[in-house]
Amino acid sequence: MPRFPVALTLLLLATAALFLTRLGDRGLTSEEVRWATVAREMRASGDPVHPTINGTAYYDKPVGSYWLIVAASGLTGGVTETAARLPAALAGVLGVGLLVGLARRLTDDRTALLAGAVLATSFGFVVYARRATADVETVVGVLAAVSLYQRNAARPGRAWVLVLWAIMAVTSLTKGLLGFALPLAVLGVDTLSLAFAGRRETGFIAGLNAHARWFFNPWTLLAVPLAVAVYFAPFMLSSVGGPAGAGTADGLAMVWRENVRRFVAPHNHVGPVYLYAGVIFVLAAPWSAFLPAALVPPVRRTPGDRFARVYFWTVFAFFTLAASRRSYYLLPVLPAAALLIAGTLTAPPQELRGLARRLRAVGWAVLAVAVVASGIALVPPAWVLPAPYDTFPPLPYPAAFAVGWLAAVAVVGLGLRGCVPRPAGFAAVIAFAAFGYGFAVAWPAVDDQRTRRTFLADVVARTHADPDRLAVFHARDSVFELGRTAPDYPDGNRLAADLRDGRVRWVLARRRYLAGVNLPANIVLEEAVRPWDGVDQVGDKLVLLEVTSPAGP
């Protein structure tokens, strides 16, 4: 067989193993609970257009990502942790394949495969490919639209324009209007860049007219209305009927609040304008060691390098200019970063400027030091950490880690002696092994230290004789583990009244919200507190209260 198909197959298999292995062996955390809860209630009700959490309308996100989880639940027999994370994991594998295809058209086989490996083993991409959110689906949807445009931009006025707008519409149904905004921003800047580059030969206006035909053609007149209809159809359907609260928190209002208004006047998630200058190095780790070198333009500018830089800087500028900033918002920049980093790692020295060559050498040094220094993880916490952190559990399966670490250190040593012919390939293998240990071995083992799952299982056992009189107080995100809905009380006075009247017997609450609330109930179960938990973590711990003098049903 030709070498490239074999290598691509191995890369995709390694990516699938990294993203899918032990996917459901960890409990859901943070925003994962929202996606899983909405999907579970959607599956139970059979209503695909009225998302709810604990029986209350919830339109903060479009319904497309919930549909993917419901579809995945058909493979798992229900909305489990695996089903909730499976769409993101499969999207991640697809994204790696798409990036290899795009990079192969822009560069060569070797750089394309390395770009896919860099994306697959970038910290942010791995984390969110194994997370029950719609972030990776958005990254891959944007990448698919950009890749389709790059393949067909020289063939305007064709049916591919329909597919382009359909991809943007479907992507926007997973998390929001980014599915339209980001691809159109990249495509628009690329069009302007091409027109500006050819201004001396043809003039800017003539060049703009030539390069903008992907948009200004008859197919767009059909594609845009169809894309708008695809995107808005679920929202229009959700305006009819639905659970309590659907009329006051409808989907279209949330589209405006969570997309348009958040961009210019956010109500939360406000970070400094320089936030992403540091975040990019975390999201792209460990390959971000080479990002400074990759951002230095090469000696000879190629069309592929120009397009990769347009892709990177457009996405980076888009999120920097937005008033709402949060670290993971920048995830869509990772495919472009992988393109630039792979190109820098495979470029011959004579094609790089002196600064880029020096920065690339620094990147290799940083990576080598990081590999060697990671061996400190083998030291028991009690030997090196102060109290109370000396009670941290030791490294899971230390023998497996030690074998991998020694092999990586050996590669570093051989590389320093010039005995490693293609160090980028070896670095990719080490990255796959390191993330494989971290996410498929260590992380599930560390999950045993989390106290929420065990506590909620005890709550289910304690309340099984009278489950209909269990209520939640600022603990709505616990209903997924409970396996059922429960009345949600945001007001402590009303909850106290219903406890006295016998309508409620049990209350599941967060500790921090009990301060200053006079409830006629006693704490009967408490989520365990670890020695290293801080004040905020203790405040977020759950407790179960039971009414002190239960009345009749």
Characteristics of this structure?
553 residues; mainly alpha; D-Maltodextrin-Binding Protein, domain 2; four-stranded mixed beta sheet; two-stranded antiparallel ribbon; 25 helices; 6 strands; 5% strand
Secondary-structure blueprint:
Blueprint: H1 3-20, H2 32-45, E1 52-53, E2 56-57, H3 64-76, H4 81-106, H5 109-120, H6 123-129, H7 135-152, H8 160-172, H9 178-197, H10 199-202, H11 204-211, H12 218-238, H13 251-264, H14 275-283, H15 291-294, H16 303-321, H17 334-346, H18 354-373, H19 381-384, H20 398-416, H21 423-446, H22 452-463, E3 470-473, H23 479-482, H24 492-501, E4 506-510, E5 521-526, H25 535-539, E6 542-547
Parallel strand pairs: 3-4
Antiparallel strand pairs: 1-2, 4-6, 5-6
Helix pairs in contact: 1-4, 1-5, 1-21, 2-3, 3-4, 4-5, 4-6, 4-7, 5-17, 5-21, 7-8, 7-9, 8-9, 8-12, 9-11, 9-16, 16-17, 20-21
